[in-house]
């Protein structure tokens, strides 16, 4: 992380130390052209710190350096530094000079002396190679040879003035008695802490049998700095100071891309899955399928072709694969083709800090896009609460900065409540999605319940669902609520059957009704037809009647005419009065 | 036998610093009284010959080196008190 526009850096020029994290703490590095005092107990990493500073200057900053070794011989220092991959041999030819200044064991001291010889020798060397940086390692070895405290004081001032005159960026390392860095104040050269422009204290302590290293910048004239103790680690590449969050920390790239959780219905509950680069926390008691859920995520990631690192603290990688295969999560193919890397972290011992650095290294080696840590709560066993908390926060911070999607599980104590009260590892507030798994005891059964406690930036279901593990895989069952309770297990099954039966009965009733109506309809239609037939008959009858009447009248009139014809003489009138 | 050995000294001084001047005075004085006519003193000023100081590994001044008779001995400081030096040179016992 470059901090060129850092709010901390608007102060005197700084010499980048090359120590990851320290430049963030100090806002750019050690004070340029001034002296830094490095104090630490035995084995606290003073020499490595100083050497890394020189190496970085010579290798990357075109600032040649001189290492004055009062304690160890330069050959041994170079040999010891080999393991960090620093090419000191190459550098030694032009931009790095080691001066062996160990007082010989048979040296006799008689009376007062000064450091004129050393300064004269250094002057030549500085001019010759254009050195900008200098380290005086274990200066106390030389100082104790001086006959009295005033002489020590005089020589320290001489050295300091000399360093300032040559504008050398210097580191002077001093021993502190045991672990008590405060005890340096009582030593004759304790006043050096007041004299120099920057003082860094290295601490190496053991807590509950776990080694903890920490670094603290005690003073830094003319610059703001992070005043807290920061844990550090001497890793494969030298010093690594852990910084949780500095003011100039760059925001991680956020995307709206979703990644599947591996469980289709859980994706639905999260309205599409986890965000890419998000941190997901799965909490639950033992046996609530935390590993299964994280395994499902890993499988889904591998299926998408994303490189995944699975760190398991509870069991071996092969065990996890076997166990997950029983619920239809097949990871072995992905392990074979290299997209999934299983790491059993039981082999790793050490502080939480060590875990973090190793996980980081492994993830970088594997180029992992998705990371599963199962469970992170193991960390709370190692080291003090503060550092564990710190490490977990930095893990999340780091994964966000890298854009890695992180799924971590956390075992809850059966006795404790759902909330993390009393737990040293309270990371639920900094994760993006928190899924809680629980046993719900109901009607003599234990069933697994899943609920989403929180999920930032997305709509999510508020319901408790039943998590079902089967040969076919992991799924979430439909929920039935009755009397305000989510029904699970047998109760759910009963409810499901009851509903099915009720449905069938309803279907039958509907059918019956339809048949009845059909029958009635048919009946009515038949009746309608018969009535129509009757109507036609009546109409025919009526027509016949009319025609019959007409013909009868015709016949009567004809017969009367015939009678008149037969009588011959009769007038018209009588025939009309006496018909027949 | 040792009475006839020539003592070869080399004294590294830092310019005209007080302790360097003291060391030179003390050494000269000692040679006059204890080693008359059988001593040689070479004075090297580290400010004038810093490369030599670097090559010889002289970091504290004044530093006195007794080159002969062997073994070579190195004494750092203003040679005040004189006692440690006399013991080292083997002069204390022989002239007592």
Core attributes:
A: 580 residues; Rossmann fold; 2 domains; 16 helices; 39% helix; B: 96 residues; alpha+beta; Glutaredoxin; 4 helices; 36% helix; globular
Please give a structural write-up.
The complex is a heterodimer of chains A (580) and B (96). With 580 residues, chain A is of the alpha/beta class. Chain A contains 16 helices and 25 strands. In chain A, the strands form five sheets. A nine-stranded mixed β-sheet of chain A has the order 5-4-7-8-3-9-10-11-12, with helices on both faces. Chain A has a nine-stranded mixed β-sheet with strand order 17-16-18-19-15-20-21-22-23, sandwiched between helices. Chain A has a two-stranded antiparallel sheet with strand order 1-2. In chain A, a hairpin with a 2-residue loop joins strand 22 (465-470) and strand 23. The longest helix of chain A is centred in the C-terminal third of the chain and has 79 residues, at 489-567. In chain A, 42% of the residues are buried. With 96 residues, chain B is α+β, with helices and mostly antiparallel strands. Chain B has a single domain (2-89), classed as Glutaredoxin (3-Layer(aba) Sandwich), CATH 3.40.30. Helix content of chain B is 36%, strand content 25%. Chain B is built from four helices and four strands, in the order βαβαββαα. In chain B, strands 2-1-3-4 form a four-stranded mixed β-sheet, covered by helices on one side. Chain B is globular, with a radius of gyration of 13 Å. The two termini of chain B are 16 Å apart. In chain B, 29% of the residues are buried. At the A-B interface, strand 6 and helix 5 of A face helix 1, helix 2, strand 4 and helix 3 of B.
List the helices and strands and how they pair.
The complex is a heterodimer of chains A (580) and B (96).
Chain A: E1 14-15, H1 22-26, E2 30-31, E3 35-40, H2 46-60, E4 65-69, H3 74-81, H4 88-94, E5 96-100, E6 108-109, H5 116-129, E7 133-137, H6 140-143, H7 149-165, E8 169-175, H8 192-195, E9 198-207, E10 210-220, E11 230-235, E12 238-241, E13 258-259, H9 264-269, E14 274-275, E15 279-284, H10 290-303, E16 308-312, H11 317-325, H12 332-337, E17 340-344, H13 352-366, E18 370-374, H14 385-402, E19 405-411, E20 433-442, E21 445-455, E22 465-470, E23 473-477, E24 480-482, E25 485-487, H15 489-567, H16 572-577
Parallel strand pairs in A: 3-8, 3-9, 4-5, 4-7, 7-8, 15-19, 15-20, 16-17, 16-18, 18-19
Antiparallel strand pairs in A: 1-2, 9-10, 10-11, 11-12, 13-14, 20-21, 21-22, 22-23, 24-25
Helix pairs in contact in A: 13-14
Chain B: E1 7-13, H1 18-34, E2 39-45, H2 50-56, E3 63-68, E4 73-76, H3 83-89, H4 91-94
Parallel strand pairs in B: 1-2
Antiparallel strand pairs in B: 1-3, 3-4
């Amino acid at each position: 992380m470059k901090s060129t526009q850092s709010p901390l850096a608007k102060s005197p020029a700084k010499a980048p130390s090359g120590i990851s994290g320290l430049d963030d703490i100090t806002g750019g590095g050690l004070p340029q052209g001034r002296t830094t005092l490095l104090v630490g107990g035995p084995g606290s990493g003073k020499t490595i710190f100083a050497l890394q500073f020189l190496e970085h200057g010579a290798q990357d900053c075109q600032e040649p350096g001189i290492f004055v070794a009062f304690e160890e011989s330069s050959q041994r220092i170079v040999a010891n530094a080999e393991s960090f991959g620093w090419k000191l041999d190459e550098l030694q030819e032009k931009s790095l000079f080691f001066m062996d200044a160990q007082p010989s064991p048979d040296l006799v001291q008689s009376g007062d002396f000064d450091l004129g010889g050393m300064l004269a020798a250094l002057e030549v060397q500085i001019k010759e190679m254009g050195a900008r940086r200098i380290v005086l390692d274990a200066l106390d070895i030389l100082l104790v040879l001086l006959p009295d405290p005033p002489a020590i004081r005089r020589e320290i001032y001489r050295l300091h003035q000399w360093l300032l005159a040559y504008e050398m960026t210097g580191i002077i390392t001093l021993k502190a008695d045991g672990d008590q860095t405060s005890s340096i104040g009582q030593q004759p050269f304790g006043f050096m802490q007041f004299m120099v422009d920057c003082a860094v204290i290295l601490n190496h302590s053991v807590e509950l049998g776990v080694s903890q290293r920490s670094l603290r910048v005690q003073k830094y004239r003319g610059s703001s700095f992070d005043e807290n103790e920061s844990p550090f680690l001497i890793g494969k590449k030298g010093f690594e100071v852990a910084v949780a969050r500095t003011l100039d920390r760059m925001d991680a790239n956020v995307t709206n891309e979703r990644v599947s959780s591996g469980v289709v219905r859980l994706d639905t509950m999260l309205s599409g899955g986890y965000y890419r680069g998000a941190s997901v926390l799965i909490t639950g008691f033992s046996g609530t399928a935390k590993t299964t859920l994280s395994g499902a995520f890993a499988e889904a990631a591998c299926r998408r072709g994303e490189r995944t690192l699975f760190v398991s603290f509870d069991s071996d990688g092969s065990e996890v694969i076997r166990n997950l295969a029983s619920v239809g999560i097949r990871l072995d193919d992905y392990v074979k083709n290299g997209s999934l890397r299983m790491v059993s972290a039981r082999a790793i011992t050490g502080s939480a800090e060590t875990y973090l650095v190793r996980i980081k290294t492994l993830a970088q080696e594997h180029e992992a896009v998705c990371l599963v840590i199962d469970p992170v709560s193991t960390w709370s066993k190692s080291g003090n609460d503060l550092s564990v908390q710190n490490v977990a926060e930095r893990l999340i911070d780091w994964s966000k900065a890298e854009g890695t999607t992180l799924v971590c599980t956390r075992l809850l104590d059966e006795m404790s409540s759902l909330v993390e009260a009393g737990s040293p590892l309270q990371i639920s507030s900094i994760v993006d999605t928190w899924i809680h798994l629980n046993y719900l005891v109901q009607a003599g059964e234990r069933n697994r319940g899943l609920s989403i406690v929180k999920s930032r930036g997305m709509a999510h279901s508020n319901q408790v669902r039943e998590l079902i593990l089967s040969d076919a895989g992991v799924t979430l069952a439909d929920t039935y609520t009755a009397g305000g309770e989510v029904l699970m297990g047998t109760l759910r099954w009963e409810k499901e059957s009851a509903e099915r039966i009720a449905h069938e009965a309803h279907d039958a009733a509907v059918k019956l009704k339809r048949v009845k109506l059909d029958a009635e309809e048919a009946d009515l239609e038949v009746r309608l037809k018969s009535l129509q037939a009757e109507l036609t008959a009546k109409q025919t009858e009526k027509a016949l009647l009319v025609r019959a009447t007409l013909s009868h009248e015709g016949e009567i009139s004809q017969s009367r005419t015939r009678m008149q014809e037969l009588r011959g003489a009769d007038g018209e009138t009588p025939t009309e009065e006496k018909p027949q | 036998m040792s009475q006839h050995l020539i003592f070869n000294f080399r004294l590294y001084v830092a310019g005209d610093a007080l302790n360097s001047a003291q060391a030179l005075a003390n050494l000269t004085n000692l040679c006059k009284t204890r080693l008359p006519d059988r001593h040689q003193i070479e004075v090297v000023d580290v400010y004038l010959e810093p490369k030599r100081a670097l090559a010889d590994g002289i970091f504290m001044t004044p530093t006195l080196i007794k080159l002969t008779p062997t073994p070579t001995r190195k004494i750092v400081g203003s040679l005040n008190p004189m006692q440690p030096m006399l013991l080292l040179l083997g002069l204390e016992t022989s002239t007592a």
